[in-house]
Design brief:
Elements (H helix, E strand, L loop, with lengths): L2 H5 L16 E3 L9 E4 L12 H6 L2 E6 L9 E3 L3 H12 L8 E6 L4 H14 L4 E4 L4 E3 L2 E3 L8 H13 L4 E5 L2 H5 L10 E4 L7 H4 L2 H13 L12 E5 L5 H7 L3 E6 L6 E9 L2 E8 L2 E6 L5 H16 L4 H10 L8 E2 L7 E5 L4 H12 L6 E5 L10 H11 L2 E4 L9 H9 L8 E2 L3 H11 L5 E5 L6 E4 L2 E4 L2 H10 L2
Parallel strand pairs: 1-2, 2-3, 3-4, 5-9, 5-10, 6-9, 10-11, 11-12, 12-13, 17-21, 18-19, 18-21, 19-20
Antiparallel strand pairs: 6-7, 7-8, 13-14, 14-15, 16-17, 22-23
Length: 485
């Protein structure tokens, strides 16, 4: 694509005299190849303008910047390179999301499970699917690693273009609040936006719950402002969440609700929990249907309702969606059992907010016969205000809480633990800073009929200590500890 042709999508931008062929676009000098357009992005730690010369030396034939840079290549100046990058990425890769059925899922908890449920439903219905989220990027049966829940504009549009080439029909995509605020999904043509729930998280970044809610609301406002009966847009919203009315107001799209306690188009009644999973009666526009999940907990019922509602508005037969969910056995790191023949239960879960930890522990209380051990920590360089809340939840809903490290990052683990302990004065708990030792202690002390919950990291296979990323998988550590009993 010629540079001048590409720049036509940026109104009021002055094109340089030179008009080279653009073979790729990137904001990462490590990905520069001959014929690249290099985009200078101001980050939290580095400024891409400092690397413009290095980019040109590696083969970039043009530079997009917010200020003048002295390079031997044409420079295009724009007021905001992040915003421009979204427009250029969408144009360069041929507007791929306009050729996909794109479903975005946002909320504090449940995004990963709901997105995987949706992807399973559409795949089982005969559609080729894509998935973008915390665990990985998936194109059909091909899995790719991902660094962020939601990648940046260029990686995202490149991925969507690849999906189109591979014949993908529907994409289920987790959309984080960070991605919405930072404009990473600008240019994505969503067909359905799903809201799971809203509870405290990421206040280190958003500062207030109101700002956090506003960030989530951006997904719904971006569904568009027109009604096209050939390609209708839908907002699928959890009616039970107090934030639901806000998201309804944020969108012009058709609103379809789901819930348990409040009136909704799709609701669950007669909910039954057992060690084998959750069952409920689905009330929908098509009447009543019985649903039996192999997944446990009330939160699984909410996730299933969100997935069923999403499938329904996308014209997937209701019975097909139900059948697909009933076959689903589990999600990595989400209420995942670790079993090596022991006579007590060990569960690993990603719960890293007060609300999600409470939900998991309430579910465990429904089947726990004796004691509940909870191994839990809080991440460093993240929201400090939730630390005492996490500790309080662990003490209230378990009999044997053990506070430990999560991903301390650049913070002193003892300082993080002190913040946790501030919320549970006069409560009974143990503090074991070393996560491996904390897991081993819980498993050594557990007896027949007890439950050990290892919370916070779930599917993660690493621990971040200082600037180092070390191998650490709660599931493997727990398995080895069980085998050593």
């Amino acid at each position: 694509m010629k540079l001048h042709s590409l720049l036509k999508v940026l109104p009021l931008t002055k094109a340089p005299r030179e008009n080279p062929d653009i073979n790729s676009i990137t904001n990462d000098t490590r990905k520069i190849e001959p014929g690249a357009l290099f985009i200078c992005i101001k980050g939290h730690q580095t400024d891409g303008h400092q690397f413009a010369n290095a980019a040109v030396a590696k083969g970039a034939v043009a530079v997009l910047a917010e200020k003048k840079v002295a390079v031997e290549a044409p420079v295009i100046l724009v007021p905001d390179t992040k915003r421009a990058m979204a427009v250029l990425a969408d144009e360069f890769y041929g507007h791929p999301t306009q050729r996909l059925n794109l479903i975005g899922i946002t909320g504090t908890n449940g995004k990963t499970t709901t997105s995987m449920m949706i992807e399973n439903i559409f795949r089982d219905a005969g559609k080729k699917t894509g998935l973008i989220g915390t665990l990985h990027i998936k194109i059909g049966d091909e899995k790719l690693e991902t660094k962020n829940t939601t990648p940046d504009n260029i990686v995202l549009q490149q991925t969507f273009a690849h999906m189109v080439e591979e014949g993908v029909h529907t994409v289920a995509m987790e959309v984080s609040s960070h991605a919405l605020i930072q404009g990473r999904v600008n240019g994505c043509d969503f067909d359905v936006a799903v809201f799971t729930n809203l509870s405290q998280d990421h206040l280190d970044y958003h500062e207030t719950m109101e700002e956090y809610k506003r960030a989530k609301g951006l997904l719904f406002s971006r569904l568009g402002n027109i009604y096209d009966r050939n390609k209708p847009k839908f907002a699928v919203i959890n009616a039970d969440d107090p934030a639901a009315p806000y998201f309804v107001k944020e969108t012009s799209a058709h609103v379809v609700t789901y819930g348990i306690d409040q009136p909704a188009e799709f609701s669950a009644g007669n909910i039954q929990m057992s060690v084998d999973g959750a069952s409920f009666t689905l009330h929908s526009p098509e009447g009543k249907q019985e649903v039996k999940l192999r997944l446990m907990g009330k939160f699984s019922v909410y996730n299933a309702l969100a997935a069923i509602t999403t499938a329904y508005v996308a014209n997937i037969p209701l019975q097909s969606a139900i059948h697909s969910l009933e076959q689903l056995e589990g999600i990595p790191g989400r209420f995942e059992a670790v079993n090596a023949g022991q006579d007590f239960t060990v569960i690993v879960d990603y719960a890293h907010t007060p609300d999600s930890l409470e939900n998991v522990l309430k579910t465990i209380q429904q089947f726990a016969k004796k004691r509940i051990f909870t191994v839990v920590g809080c991440g460093g360089d993240r929201d400090r205000t939730k630390r005492p809340l996490m500790a309080k939840v662990a003490c209230v809903y378990s009999t044997n809480p053990i506070f430990t490290s999560d991903n301390p990052r650049t913070e002193d683990p003892s300082a993080i633990l002190a913040d946790m302990e501030a919320g549970v004065q006069d409560q009974r708990y143990k503090v074991i800073p070393d996560r491996k030792e904390a897991i081993q202690t819980a498993i050594r002390e557990a007896k027949q009929g007890d439950v050990v919950l290892i919370a916070g990291k779930g599917h993660e296979t690493y621990q971040i200590i200082g600037e180092k990323v070390i191998d650490f998988d709660d599931r493997l550590v727990a398995m080895k500890a069980i085998e050593e009993l």
